[in-house]
Amino acid sequence: MKPDTTPAQNRPKTYRVKSFGCQMNVYDGERMAELLAEKGITEAPEGEDADLVVLNTCHIREKAAEKIYSDIGRLTKGKIQKKVPMIAVAGCVAQAEGEEIMKRAPAVSMVVGPQAYHRLPDMLDKAVQGERVTDTDMPAIAKFNALPQRKRRTPSAFLTVQEGCDKFCTYCVVPYTRGAEISRPYNDLLDEARKLIEAGAREITLLGQNVNAWSGENETGRTVGLAGLIHSLARLDGLERIRYTTSHPNDMDDALIAAHGEVAKLMPYLHLPVQAGNDRVLKAMNRSHTAQSYLRLLERFREARPDIALSGDFIVGFPGETEAEFEDTLSLVDEVRYAQAYSFKYSPRPGTPAATMDNQIAKEVMEDRLQRLQDRLNRDQLAFNQASVGKTCDVLVERKGKHEGQWLGKSPWLQSVWFEDEAQLGDLVAVELAEAGPNSLRGVVREVATV
Ligand code: 5AD
Ligand code: SF4
């Protein structure tokens, strides 16, 4: 029998939120789940059908954006779960293509943008009456004030401190889907951090599209940047680890670099995208930094915290990128020796300046460049992991492993570490790193950590 693809109209009792893309989406997904829980809707147990499915989408690259339509198709054809659920589309595809989704996918009841999801419960009230509702307003801070208290119980938690982007890199949709840069107020962030800690968080990762552009007034009325916020968070009892992501090279200030040498709870890890190693390409990308200024910045982080693990993002095949220009990216990688990195083929995004630039690069050329770049990045990641063998460090226990008695967690350098011993979720366990693979390390429990 052909499944009914008209929107479901019964009030849902269970939900499932599926988040794609960046960590900010994971955070937003958690907050939507908390909102739905407040309305008495419970999370569908693993493997069981949900009455309401929220697809929290990513628009950063074409592949990510197209996924949404295949997911909607599979949901309405009964391929993901037996019963066709009520469907809400959230996230950046919702923001960018709201009307188109409504036209293309009749099974979708709600389309809600990343700055409007606090209104999801009201939208749901309309959807159960059979209305199809779209809300892609961008009131930014209003969202945070309207959200319920945090209830997330995980050893490692995300906390959005900044949203949006004013940088307008020529390939990127984020300034259009997430809007202008805004910083959440200092006091709200400390309150939310306290709630997360009370609920069991021992590590907090501060999130923002340009997290290091955050600024706010502290309790004495002084304007502080991200470093000031980190110093304040470090004074909270029960919080053991602080991380932040993603930073822009141009918003890096002396205080944040210095904090890596001053704040023991700030983990020795920095994700600082560079995108390309050639100055002409960087200029065409509107990155407003050069390869040299980026390298100099990293040097200063290494001076402040010599063991810092470096991570970055790369795009290969930006319009007009020549072979020699691409090789500059390889040279930059050789110079930095990243502990970890993310690399992508350039994907033209509708409405961005680069999408209409001449000299779009052929798919095969991009694939070849991506492979060569990833070979080097993988080489360096393995080398970094291998160089960690013999070190004893704290591992924050975040999950049970596949086997009985096995635990998984993260080293200070954000490496995945597994070990077998007595432990509990949220423990900080002193572990000697005994064996390294490309993506994880095996640890052996010791008495006291040295790092
Ligand atoms: N094509 C490919 N990669 C992109 N990114 C952003 N926009 C694009 C695009 N149009 C990458 C950048 C960014 C990361 C989050 O995604 O490397 O840092
Ligand atoms: Fe996109 Fe550039 Fe802003 Fe990062 S800094 S979100 S890549 S526009």
Tell me what you see in this structure.
By secondary structure, the chain is α/β, with parallel strands linked by helices. It folds into 3 domains: 14-142, Rossmann fold; 144-387, pyruvate-formate lyase- activating enzyme; 392-449, OB fold (Dihydrolipoamide Acetyltransferase, E2P), CATH 2.40.50. It contains 13 helices and 21 strands. It has helices at residues 23-38, 62-76, 91-104, 120-127, 141-146, 174-177, 186-198, 226-234, 254-262, 279-284, 291-304, 323-336, 363-388, and strands spanning 14-19, 42-43, 52-57, 86-90, 108-112, 133-135, 156-160, 162-163, 182-183, 203-207, 215-217, 223-225, 241-245, 269-271, 309-316, 340-345, 392-400, 406-410, 416-420, 428-436, 440-445. Strands 2-1-3-4-5-6 form a 6-stranded parallel β-sheet, sandwiched between helices. The protein has a 5-stranded mixed barrel with strand order 17-18-19-21-20. The longest helix is centred in the C-terminal third of the chain and has 26 residues, at 363-388. The chain is globular. The model is unreliable at 1-6 (pLDDT under 50). 5'-deoxyadenosine binds next to strand 15.
